[in-house]
Specification:
The protein has about 350 residues and is α/β, with parallel strands linked by helices. The chain folds into two domains: about 180 residues, Periplasmic binding protein-like II (D-Maltodextrin-Binding Protein, domain 2, 3-Layer(aba) Sandwich), CATH 3.40.190.10; about 140 residues, 3-Layer(aba) Sandwich (D-Maltodextrin-Binding Protein, domain 2), CATH 3.40.190.10. It contains 13 helices and 15 strands. The strands form three sheets. Strands 1, 2, 3, 4, 7, 13, 14 and 15 form an eight-stranded mixed sheet that branches. Strands 10-9-11-8-12 form a five-stranded mixed sheet. The chain has a two-stranded antiparallel ribbon with strand order 5-6. The longest helix has 25 residues.
């Protein structure tokens, strides 16, 4: 057996490398210690116990601000307000205007080693529309939900298979809908067979508006937040609901003792993918990257599943079947027009008035 020997120069070189690594680690910890990370996110994404662990790991402080709509997030980050936060959670469609406005900066993926824990489809950032611009990644996938159909098992037999179930006359006054123009126009277009529901052509608007007016006639009501939908479902004897929050609403309804079923329709489900991104005004990019890396660990991912009923990007979703197809949200052709027309539709206007300039 050959005995390998080392010269004093090799030993000294090894010691220098070890010392350099320790110093680099110490410098990184010092850079994060006693700094404050300002997080803008959605309820349930940064629970106090998870935040406490991160603070202990990094020696930093974390300030969490929660929002309940994309519009509120935009108000908090638009213009010079991006300097008020370091890291934020945003879906892939909304992310585009932050990139376009220079409010988000590229993420150094090499500094987020836990991406190796993610499922292959979430590691492929170029394969997800809107995440990579000019070979630079602007966000890291974190959680997602598909907008499926939730139904009362006693009233709806057999289980629905198509989005078109929302339009069935037998459910008049028993359909619960999400109060949002962008998603509902995409939903209607998809129900009409449109394979590109995020981009409506000029000739498509009248037919889609008519279809949404017909859907309004079936509506029991319109919700905004998942908790609100549970109360409306329970008190209004809902038969079927367009679940904007998907599996999160399923869990809330079951906790409320309501016997519901859940399906992803055969046309596929619109689906949002929330990612962590770093703001232009981040004071400590290293700390922001450390936060994103921590969010991909086991505990935060498990919290999403058990507490929120949301899927994470490191394990397979228990709410999806192998054949279920998801259509990740993309920017729509005209957010303002969709919102304006939707307000007219739920107000009860006729098609001619809805489409009036």
């Amino acid at each position: 057996m050959a005995i390998r020997t080392f010269s004093w120069r090799q030993t000294l070189c090894g010691l220098k490398q070890a010392v350099a690594w320790v110093l680099a680690l110490s410098v990184a910890q010092v850079a994060m210690a006693q700094d404050t990370l300002r997080v803008l996110t959605w309820p349930g994404y940064a629970d106090p116990d998870l935040v406490k662990v991160f603070e202990q790991q990094t020696g930093s402080k974390v300030e969490v601000t929660t929002i309940d709509s994309d519009d509120v997030m935009w108000q908090k980050l638009n213009k010079n307000k991006a300097d008020d936060f370091d890291v934020f959670a945003v879906n892939t469609a909304e992310l585009q205007r932050y990139i376009k406005g220079g409010l988000a900066v590229p993420v150094r993926t090499a500094n987020i080693p836990n991406t190796a824990r993610q499922l292959p489809r979430f590691r492929d950032l170029k394969g997800i529309a809107g995440l990579v611009h000019g070979d630079k990644a602007y966000a890291i996938p974190y959680t997602y939900a598909e907008m499926g159909l939730i139904f009362d098992k006693q009233q709806v037999k057999p289980a629905p298979t198509s989005i078109r179930a929302l339009w069935e006359p037998r459910y008049r006054g028993k359909v619960l809908l999400y109060n949002g123009g962008s998603h509902n126009f995409s939903l209607a277009a998809q129900a009409m067979g449109d394979t590109t529901p995020y981009q409506l052509g000029n000739a498509e608007w009248p037919a889609v508006v008519d279809h949404l007016i017909n859907l309004r006639r079936n509506a029991q009501g319109f919700y905004t937040q998942p908790e609100e939908s549970v109360e409306m479902f329970k008190n209004g004897h809902t038969a079927i609901m367009f679940a904007n929050y998907g599996s999160q609403q399923v869990q809330l309804l079951k906790r409320a003792g309501i016997d519901v079923g859940y399906v992803v329709p055969q046309e596929g489900a619109l689906a949002w993918l929330d990612c962590w991104a770093i703001t232009r005004g981040a004071k400590n990019t290293q700390l922001a990257e450390a936060w994103i890396n921590y969010m991909l660990e086991t505990a935060p991912g498990q919290a999403l599943l058990t507490r929120q009923g949301l899927a994470n990007t490191t394990s397979e979703s228990p709410y999806l079947r192998a054949q279920d197809r998801l259509l990740w949200l993309e920017p729509v052709e005209n957010v303002d027009r969709r919102a304006k027309l939707w307000e007219r539709i739920i107000a009860g206007d006729r098609a001619s008035k809805v489409l009036a300039p």
